[in-house]
Amino acid sequence: MPRPAFDRFYRYDELTEILQGWADERPEVFALESIGQSYEGREIWLCTVTNTETGPALEKPGFLIEANIHSLEVTGTTAALHLLDRLVNGSDERVRRLLDTRTLYVVPRLNPDGPELALADRPRFIRSSTRPWPLDEHVDGLHEEDLDGDGRILMMRFRDPNGSWKPHPEEPRLLVRREPDDAAGDFYRVLWEGRIRNYDGVTIKVAPPLEGLDLNRNFPMEWAVEAEQYGAGPYPTSEPEIRAMVQAIVDRPNITGHIAYHTFSGVHLRPYSGYSDEHFPTEDLRTYELLGEKATELTGYPAVSIYHEFKYDPKQSVKGGANDWFYDHLGIYSWTTEFWSPQREAGLEDVKFIEWLRDHPPEDDVKLLRWSDEQLDGRGYIDWYPFEHDQLGDVELGGWDLMYAWGNVPPKFLEREIAPHTELAIWHALVSPRLDVRSAEVEGLGESKWLVRLVVENTGWLPTSVSQQAVDRKAVRPLEAEITLPEDGRVVGGEKKVELGQLDGRVDRRSLLWWGSNDATSDRAKAEWVVEAPAGSEVQVEARHQRAGTVRRVLALE
To answer: Among 175, 325, 376, 464, which residue's Cβ finds the most Cβ atoms within 10 Å?
Structure first.
């Protein structure tokens, strides 16, 4: 099977063909299953990648990558394919170690319906699901549409003496804001390319979309009604895509971390959306910061708090998002990666994400236009061209092609942009907790009695619980050890199954000069049993932890 290309975006059928090809060719490391169906009935694919010869997927620490919950953001699917290709076809030591000791779960397209509209020959751009909500039919006003059938939805401008925009004095192709005291000159009104339903010839309003759901507002954490959180749906997990995702995670308690692939801004986002960093247990905030530092080192993207640095409105917070649910309810470190920053590409510095989009100097627009001219071969910012609109008369189409230049990574830069994130996903999975056997031994006590001892340790960087939040929320069970005896054997000292608590990792061991440093063996646990059984028979000892994995040994009584 030919490998996928990483300079393009894939429709659903092509994506399915690639995934099924890997499942057919590499069944020992790659399994494909549907976790549910979308609103329109497409299968939502989940890929499980691990070396099955070294153990079942659920008996290893797992890590989850989820992509393309938002319709326009198809970069995430290609990034997920890049990671899968690296795991399926890679042979270096890190990939081998990951497949032998961990499980990667990848959902390349959580929302299979919306991207079909975004990638159509005549596209439509919606936020997420194609299910109508909260409307049940289109209402009056402007509806976006590819009027001239060129495969793009651009901006649409026409002269208006009361317009808010004017040509830049040095770059007349570029429109900049009209100053408060501007009274003379050419002014424009700018809308998205489209038609006006029930136009009265005078007033133009922008119609709310028929498909108003935002699937990343439908998770259980602090879900809120439509009046408080736009796009949230009628109740938590009301949408089949999110219900399937939540159930898949509940069914895989070995998941230790999560990254969601989105666009755009060139940033890694972490919880909380609605609380300051003071809301974290101290050790969890420190761990999040350390994970973020490594993410920045590997990808060049800063790592920031949603609440502190990525708010859409300073007085509002996002509710019902995936990151908050993963961390707050499950105690799993969860990130959103927003691929791609055109501003950074154009050489702009200290761009403040959402605030910059709301307002920035016209000089920034000039730099972006010049970058587009030099790097995007005329496909980013489109020179304005005349169009005869059947309602508005003479208009011009042009400006930014947002789907091409902003909403996704332009194909010529795509592989360069996503490749470092594959290495981040591998690193993040490898720092998960991992249970291992330090020793397993038998000591004869005479009279067919034996002392059986099992010592296990967490060889991972994170603790077996992953976070303090998981412990506080009782979201993770303690480590368990159990002995299985021959038919004629019995335990005469101790309990057959014992709980051993949680094991520390190395995440908090940062400096020998810290007076609170503690290098005790809190990463290790011991279980002992006195058993009575015939000499020459065998016992099996097993230690298991939901997130750190399962280990077993068979011991001869001799």
So the answer is: 464
